[in-house]
Amino acid sequence: AMLRLRLLTWDVKDTLLRLRQPVGQSYAAEARAQGLQVQPEALGRSFREVYGAQSRRFPNYGHGQGLSSRQWWLDVVKQSFRLSGVQDEAALTKLAEKLYRDYCSSNTWELLPGAAETLSRCRQLGFRMGVVSNFDGRLEAILSHCNLRHHFEFVLTSEAAGFAKPDGRIFEQALRLGGARPEQAAHIGDDYSRDYRAARAAGMHSFLLRAAGQAEGPEVPPEHVLPTLSHLLARIEK
Questions:
Q1: 208, 195 in Cβ contact below 8 A?
Q2: Terminal CA-to-CA distance of the chain, rounded, Å?
């Protein structure tokens, strides 16, 4: 069956871009640069614990709770180091501000295989394109530094939308921005519930990027699964 698609919306992290190294390694390298020895594995564990707790306590970067996303992230970084044994408050502040900036840089991110070619081809085919991402305001800069921003008519973050995936209201905003009805749009992402299922619940088509060897999640029709981004074009060719 031909999909009569006008609009493609894209998740970013682990769909188009991924971190070049695990968070614990990046954080430990920055600490070393400031003369502090912290184990990357310990930092990674601390980060996951702190990030989880902060996300539950202040969902969507504290939107609606009086926090800025910058403050939200500075707190996460400082608490991750504190939990890993760093007590020096001046050092914590310096580390947090440096890492907050570093995560905007193209040195921190790399493109997933097929990302640039697939985005270019989709634009050549005349699709309207937008980003729908549970991310903070740095995403515009990250996409620009990684030379992807020009592919998209809009970049909708959960921070700007006020809603995070899987909340259907972020997809409704994206459809308005993209000037498309749900059945004319498809969302591409790597998370089963936040991307694949949430977009379908909003009436859109969706495709799940699921790399080979990834732990098999819930059943998804094979024609909705993308082993790599390069498989997308065969699924949607007009």
A1: yes
A2: 11
Q: Which helix (H) or strand (E) holds 157?
A: strand 154-157
What tokens appear for 163 in the block? 């809603």
Q: Which residue, 99, 97, 104, 102, is CA-closest to 143?
A: 104
Residue 215 to residue 211: CA distance in whole angstroms: 9
Express each pLDDT in 32-88 by its tens digit: 999 999 999 999 999 999 999 999 999 999 999 999 999 999 999 999 999 999 999
The string of DSSP letters for 37-81 reads: ---HHHHHHHHHHHHHHHHHHSHHHHTTTT--HHHHHHHHHHHHH
- Give every CB contact of residue 88 below 8 A, 6+ residues apart in sequence: none
**Domains in the chain: ranges and CATH:** 7-16+112-234 (3.40.50.1000), 21-106 (1.10.150.720)
Q: Measure Cα distances from 219 to 177, 206, 216, 223, 225 in Å.
A: 31, 14, 8, 12, 10
Euclidean distance between CA atoms 224 and 188, whole angstroms = 10
Length of the chain: 238
Contact (CB, 8 A) for 118 and 230:
yes
d(CA 195, CA 204): 11
- With contact defined as beta carbons under 8 Å apart, do 171 and 132 qualify? yes
Has this prediction a pTM greater than 0.90?
A: yes
Q: Are 114 and 229 in contact (CB under 8 A)?
A: yes
Residue of 81, 75, 44, 43 whose CA lies nearest to 57: 75
